[in-house]
């Protein structure tokens, strides 16, 4: 990666139109020129009299700003794409008219208020430097402390430079759309929350000019959206059908330090795409100091470093390891509340259940304290934050701390209890105290037994430092680590391993093929995955029929890649019309793609279990999910009024609404590929077994076999892991074979969401996998016996016919 590989520094082909032939002759100036009424080389496709742009925005003659700007009154007159400088931009920002709303309108009062806050962000002070670097290089790396304004401000800066709203391109369907700016986020919550914030900052409507796209939810408008926040996974999916990402003028890969699977693949792809498309700009943003690795990877891309403006954070450790971190976290919050100066608290926990539990306990104790000694303890507002929380509730983290209960009384405090989201993705102002138990939920993959799980695992030193940093945003803070200093030094790894090294890659390998990457081994990964993991993925995709024996995508594989689902689920959907159950399989696929629909609150476990039993299907949980969905649709024809029924039945209304939405989106994909939506007659004895057959076609590699005679003990086929059905299962008996959706690693191994399947289906629908050559022991004997019986039957049939 010698620096000579870099694109010529001043090749000014970045004219956004994509056609380098239209570039003007002669070297363009390295700095924008602002003489008035200058011929604009970027308008060379227009007749000569239209090639002039008006003078610069520097200097005060623009006075009140845009409206004083003469002719058209558009504040952006005089802006030459990608030759914009900070002073021009600041002048429009301070002006009266919003150039980004669909029809230019005066800025609102709220806009001005927020602008004043934006001006205080460290990134804002570096606007001039940003434009210099942005213009002179195709790819740049940017690092800055969490909260410095990267995610919210940089895409807006780019908008002033790329003017995406004015430079529209025709899509394949003839629709004229802005050539967009994309900003990727590893987390759905961050994409939604930041898009909403930026729409407010820009004084435009969310979903119109500024939007977001996450899996199963698209809040953008093809014709008007020019700035799009999206999950990294969604951009990857778009690249599958648009190999050059032609719809974009600039891609911002945010939170690159998180090294998610999708971001890593995008980095490799964008390295190739930027070599092909010189007009495409790429900005890689990260919150850690490890910028060199990114710079090196992108052929020595220049770096913009936003100086942090953080205050010192004092770190405390426990003397002894804490046996119960949840209990210790709650205790620490209450201690801070009673003993420390005003300032909000941020607690890191690992998941929804734990967080809700902690919220309840802290709230109860704090209320008690406040009522017992109102002169010592102010009111405490406890706010949860995790990804499946509805957007309106997520916004609560930005609400201010409660006021004192009475004048002169102790001030109120806000405590946010969050997953890793708050580590770098979302910035919460006003945090002074951080409580860090040292754990997060992390994906782990063991290719040997083909099991991927989310496990509560110790965080890395880098994460611990990020967490501590959250306390010093507005003034000096304190971080309480609920582990010993010795453990911090000797037990925590330096950096979290990139996700690509700890994931099942089946989906990724399918996507890469669809992205046109032929050689999976020579692809330019920042950190290459283990060969065994790639082998496992290829093997699965080959058994599913997505890849042929040479490792090429089959027509079936092409369609599978179009579904935003794991390959097993897409396979089961695609074959379902053959079993006349595509309507039902569609429902099951949707129900499996949303958070658990069954609620089981601590205070009503028995009632919840009884409610669930009402929906139970004796043959398993997949069919139970189908029953739940049917009951929901029958009882709640209008989703907006369904919450009562759901609550009475201990079902999550939110998950069911989401399932309904996911279902219609998957249905659209089915229709796009002419996959029929059909059902077996409900009175037919095959109604349920047809569904089980279709399930088998997708999940035949996730089957467990009953161990000996003991009830409730199973071993997984091929990998021989001992597992038990999850206690939440509705399966009423212990079938010889059961198909599972999920392998849960805890102190015991469980299989969750399970359904009864028969060996003859496995042999019939997955003959390459279930044959005597591929299997051993008891399974092999059973397959042989099955074949013998079948042979006899066939012979008998022949004899009677003959
Ligand atoms: N939804 C929101 N409501 C209020 N303020 C917000 C919201 N989102 C972001 N901010 C503000 O924007 C600032 C910059 O955040 P951000 O751009 O996400 O920083 P970075 O990406 O560098 O971590 C934060 O300090 C916060 O005050
Ligand atoms: Mg950010």
Automatic annotation (TrEMBL):
Single biological process term from Gene Ontology: spliceosomal complex disassembly
Source domain of life: Eukaryota
Keyword set includes Secreted: no
Keywords: ATP-binding, Helicase, Hydrolase, mRNA processing, mRNA splicing, Nucleotide-binding
Basic and acidic residues biased stretches: 1-13, 51-61
Helicase C-terminal domain segment(s): 329-516
Stored InterPro entries: DEAD-box_helicase_OB_fold, DEAD/DEAH_box_helicase_dom, DHX15_DEXHc, DNA/RNA_helicase_DEAH_CS, HA2_WH, Helicase-assoc_dom, Helicase_ATP-bd, Helicase_C-like
Xref: SUPFAM superfamilies: P-loop containing nucleoside triphosphate hydrolases (SSF52540)
Reactions it catalyzes: ATP + H2O = ADP + phosphate + H(+)
Gene Ontology cellular component list: post-mRNA release spliceosomal complex
UniProt cross-references to Gene3D superfamilies, sorted A to Z: 1.20.120.1080, P-loop containing nucleotide triphosphate hydrolases
CDD domains: DEXHc_DHX15 (cd17973), SF2_C_RHA (cd18791)
GO molecular function: ATP binding; hydrolase activity; RNA binding; RNA helicase activity
Enzyme Commission number: 3.6.4.13
Stretches assigned to the Helicase ATP-binding domain: 131-307
Record carries keyword Hydrolase: yes
Region (Disordered): 1-80
Function in brief: Pre-mRNA processing factor involved in disassembly of spliceosomes after the release of mature mRNA.
Similarity comment text for this entry: Belongs to the DEAD box helicase family. DEAH subfamily. DDX15/PRP43 sub-subfamily.
Protein name: RNA helicase
Biological source species: Tilletiaria anomala (strain ATCC 24038 / CBS 436.72 / UBC 951)
Taxonomic lineage from the root: Eukaryota, Fungi, Dikarya, Basidiomycota, Ustilaginomycotina
């Amino acid at each position: 990666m010698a620096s000579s590989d870099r694109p010529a520094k001043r090749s000014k082909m970045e004219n956004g139109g994509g056609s380098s032939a239209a570039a003007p002759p002669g070297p363009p100036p390295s700095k924008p020129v602002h003489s008035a009424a200058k011929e604009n080389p970027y308008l060379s496709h227009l007749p000569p009299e239209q090639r002039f742009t008006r003078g610069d925005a520097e200097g005060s003659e623009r006075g009140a700003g845009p409206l004083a700007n003469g002719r058209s009154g558009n504040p952006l007159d005089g802006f030459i794409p990608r030759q914009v400088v900070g002073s021009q931009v600041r002048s429009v920002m301070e002006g009266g008219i919003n150039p980004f709303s669909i029809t230019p309108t005066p800025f609102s009062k709220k806009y001005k208020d927020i602008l004043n806050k934006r001006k205080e962000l460290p990134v804002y002070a570096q606007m001039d430097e940003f434009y210099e670097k942005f213009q002179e290089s195709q790819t740049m790396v940017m690092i800055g402390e969490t909260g410095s304004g990267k995610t919210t401000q940089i895409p807006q800066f780019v908008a002033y430079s790329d003017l995406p709203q004015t430079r529209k391109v025709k899509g394949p369907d003839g629709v004229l759309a802005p050539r967009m700016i994309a900003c990727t986020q590893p987390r759905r919550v961050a994409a939604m929350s930041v898009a909403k914030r930026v729409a407010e900052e820009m004084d435009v409507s969310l979903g119109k000019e500024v939007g977001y796209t996450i899996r199963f939810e698209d809040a953008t408008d093809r014709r008007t959206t020019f700035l799009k926040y999206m999950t990294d996974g969604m951009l990857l999916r778009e690249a599958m059908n648009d190999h050059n990402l032609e719809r974009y003028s600039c891609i911002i890969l945010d939170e690159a330090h998180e090294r998610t699977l999708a971001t890593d693949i995008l980095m490799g792809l964008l390295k190739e795409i930027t070599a092909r498309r010189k007009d495409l700009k790429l900005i890689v943003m990260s919150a850690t100091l490890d910028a060199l690795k990114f710079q090196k990877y992108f052929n020595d891309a220049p770096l913009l470093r936003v100086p942090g403006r953080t205050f010192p954070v004092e770190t405390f450790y426990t003397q002894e390891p804490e046996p119960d971190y949840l209990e210790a976290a709650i205790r620490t919050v209450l201690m801070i509340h009673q003993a420390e100066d005003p300032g909000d608290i941020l607690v890191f926990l690992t998941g929804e259940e734990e967080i809700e539990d902690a919220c309840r306990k802290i709230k109860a104790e704090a209320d008690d304290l406040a009522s017992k000694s109102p002169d010592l303890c102010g009111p405490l507002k406890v706010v949860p934050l995790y990804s499946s929380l509805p957007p309106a509730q997520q916004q609560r983290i930005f609400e201010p701390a409660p006021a004192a209960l009475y004048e002169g009384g102790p001030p109120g405090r806000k405590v946010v209890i969050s997953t890793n989201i708050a580590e770098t993705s979302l910035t919460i102002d006003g945090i002074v105290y951080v409580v860090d138990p040292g754990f997060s939920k992390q994906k782990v993959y063991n290719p040997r037994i083909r099991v991927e799980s989310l496990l509560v695992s110790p965080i890395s030193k880098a994460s611990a430092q990020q967490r501590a940093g959250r306390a010093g945003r507005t003034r000096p803070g304190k971080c309480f680590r609920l582990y010993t200093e010795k453990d911090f030094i000797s037990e925590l790894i330096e950096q979290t391993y990139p996700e690509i090294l700890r994931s099942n890659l089946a989906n990724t390998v399918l996507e890469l093929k669809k992205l046109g990457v032929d050689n999976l081994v020579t692809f330019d990964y920042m950190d290459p995955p283990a060969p065994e993991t790639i082998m496992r993925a290829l093997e699965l995709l080959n058994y599913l029929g997505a890849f042929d024996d040479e490792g090429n995508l089959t027509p079936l594989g092409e369609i599978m890649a179009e579904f935003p689902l794991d390959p097993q689920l897409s396979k089961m959907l695609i074959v379902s019309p053959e079993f006349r159950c595509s309507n039902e399989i569609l429902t099951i696929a949707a129900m499996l793609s949303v958070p658990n629909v069954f609620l089981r609150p601590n205070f009503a476990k028995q009632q919840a279990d009884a409610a669930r039993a009402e929906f139970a299907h004796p043959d398993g949980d997949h069919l139970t999910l189908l029953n739940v969905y049917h009951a929901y649709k029958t009882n709640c024809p209008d989703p907006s009024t369904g919450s009562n029924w759901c609550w009475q039945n201990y079902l999550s209304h939110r998950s069911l609404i989401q399932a309904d939405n996911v279902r219609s989106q998957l249905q659209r994909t089915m229709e796009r590929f002419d996959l029929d939506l059909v059902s077996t007659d409900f009175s037919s004895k095959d109604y349920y077994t047809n569904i089980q057959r279709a399930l088998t076609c997708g999940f035949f590699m996730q089957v467990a076999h009953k161990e000996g005679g003991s009830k409730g003990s199973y071993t997984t086929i091929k990998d021989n892991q001992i597992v038990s059905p999850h206690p939440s299962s509705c399966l009423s008996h212990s079938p010889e074979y059961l198909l599972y959706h999920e392998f849960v690693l805890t102190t015991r191994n469980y299989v969750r969401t399970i359904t009864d399947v028969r060996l003859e289906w496995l042999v019939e629908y997955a003959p390459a996998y279930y044959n005597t050559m591929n299997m051993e022991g008891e399974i092999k004997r059973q397959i042989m016996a099955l074949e013998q019986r079948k042979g006899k039957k066939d012979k008998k049939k022949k004899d009677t016919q003959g």
